[in-house]
Amino acid sequence: MAAGNTPRRRRNAAWTRTFAALVIACWLAAVAAPPLTLVAWRERRLAEVASPEAQAEWDAFRADMRQQSDRDGPVQRKVPKSAEPPELVWLRDYLGLAIAAWVTLIGVLGGFLAALALGMARAASAAEDGAAGHCHDQKQNECDTQNTDERRHG
Question: Which residues fall within 8 angstroms of residue 61, CB to CB, at 6 or more apart?
């Protein structure tokens, strides 16, 4: 049997491929699942915060802040400038920005962590393969030492 195609190496290669597929699937799920969930949730929540009741609650809150801002005390209240509830504005106007930020940040960070995990798995697999061929490594180290000595003294 060829030295590069031992059962142990084939098993390590299969394990590494399976691990790589799992890591990439997890990374893609982490990038795609939250934005898809947010879009589905947005459809339900937007109907609630766009209702006249929600607008009335927001107007009452602003009126209360206006009254509290006239009082003296340790905390000065500011009247919110928006005539619409902030959740409505965010869901309606800034959802695309939130999704872009998520995909960018988690895509880069998750991609880096996935690459790190894959590199560690490959290094562990190579180290295990190298342990089987230790005699070859020992002989190579002796040759390297001999070549270094010849260059130094020759």
Answer: 80
